[in-house]
Write a structure and sequence with these properties.
The protein is an alpha+beta fold. It is 40% helix and 32% strand. The chain has a single domain, classed as Alpha-Beta Plaits (2-Layer Sandwich), CATH 3.30.70.
C-alpha cells in the first residue's frame, strides 16, 4: 500500500538547509521514494495550521518509508536537517 511521509519544516539556517536539499534526493530515490510536494506555497483553508515548509514524499509502503528515514544513506542528511531546522514528520498509508 502506498505511503506518504509528510514533513512540516521550520528552517532556521537557510544557507545550510540548502546543502541538506542537495543531499536528500539520492537517498529518497534509493528507497523508491519521490517528491510530491517540496516546499511550495501553502494556504490554510481551515484551522490555524500554518506550516513554514511542507514536504510530501511518496513510497511504495510504510515499511519502505521507515527504511528510508532510518537508513545509512539518509543518516548524514537527516542529521543536517536536524541541525538546520525544526521539523515534524508523519507517515500515512495511502489508497
Amino acid at each position: 500500500m502506498t505511503a506518504y511521509v509528510i514533513l512540516d519544516i521550520d528552517v532556521h539556517d537557510p544557507a545550510q538547509y540548502e546543502e541538506y536539499k542537495k543531499l536528500s534526493p539520492a537517498s529518497i530515490a534509493t528507497y523508491g521514494g519521490k517528491f510530491i510536494v517540496r516546499g511550495g506555497k501553502t494556504e490554510t483553508l481551515e484551522g490555524d495550521w500554518s506550516p513554514s515548509r511542507l514536504v510530501v514524499l511518496q513510497f511504495e509502503s510504510v515499511d519502505r518509508a521507515k527504511a528510508w528515514i532510518n537508513s545509512e544513506e539518509y543518516r548524514e542528511a537527516r542529521a543536517m536537517r536536524h541541525r538546520t531546522s525544526t521539523s515534524q514528520a508523519v507517515v500515512v498509508e495511502g489508497l
